[in-house]
Amino acid sequence: MDVEGDSLIRAGNIVIIGRPNVGKSTLLNRLLGQKLSITADKPQTTRHRILGVLDRPDGQIALLDTPGIHRLAGRRALNQSLNRAALSGLSEADVIWFVVIAGQWDDEDDFILETLRREKKPVVLIVNKIDRLSDRRRLLPYLDNLKNLYPFTEIVPISALKGDNEKRLVEVSLCHLPSVQEKPYDPEYLTDRNLRFITAEFIREKIMRSLGEEVPYATAVTIDNFEEQSGLTRIAATIWVERKGQKAIVIGQKGERLKAIGSRARHSLENLLGTQVFLELWVKVRPGWQNDARFLQKLEMEEPRWPKN
Question: Could you tell me the pTM of the whole model?
């Protein structure tokens, strides 16, 4: 097709990868201008590939948030599934965003970098959390060292939490996306995930933020009922744990912790849905669910490829 003289824009796929807790989901939410991917200061918060479409007058970016990559995924089916979900989108990406924490570099960053060497795609290295550096003078020598590790297309220091340098990140990334005549997605399209999925994730976020170090990783959430009425959304959900002791912890004394989780989740869901929400939560025990392939499939842990418009 001869497109000479036609107005072209930039559009394509960008996959966001990095080890756990580097701020990938916070970055996605910041760029989209609304909460889509849940966040918590714990590993395994993101368990799924989540697509969000950033629409601009001069282009369109399909951003794919991914679980944190573990160098040693372990024997659990869940951990192996998380790594597969994180790495499976690389072959379809036009550009890769590799997110690290300012002033830090560890074995898992090395592991990811070795994976990127095999992909041979444009890689933008995003140095996140620059706002947390106690001494900003450390940043320049740190960035100089990173330049010697790999021929990154760009190195962009940012604060995903505060929005520092996000405009430059988007602009330099658009330059490396294909030129197209039409946007692949409708400008109003935001994500490939439905409300049932997002609801389950919002509930799981409140669990992650409400509990200690061990129990959150042994929990999962499924939606049993999602009924939209005039001005009211009725939701019933089950929180799954692996042991009876974990069930008691989630419920709390006289049910107080479960009530608090439900209250926080309900407020977040009302802001998302724009309706009053009636939320029922149940806690059930399913021993060994993290190694149960069928149950992981029910949780949508095995991810589809990039959705086609």
Answer: 0.83
